[in-house]
Amino acid sequence: MLTALLVGCDNTEVKSLEYYENHPDEAEKVFKQCDFDKLKEGSNAYKNCKNAKEAYEFNESKKFFSGTNPYKTK
Question: What pTM value is reported for the model?
Fold first, then answer.
């Protein structure tokens, strides 16, 4: 259903990068449902997906450098 909303009409609420940084589970969920090939660049859905993607990637890098990475050397 979220995918249909993101691809369909452009009345998608744009949530800020800061919002997604503070809600990492939602950022991951939204980002993984985004299909950038089907979104019109500059649309609200595109902006929302972009913010979710940036927050998701930021949160993943924090995990990597925080010591939760099993490959990190001591």
Answer: 0.72
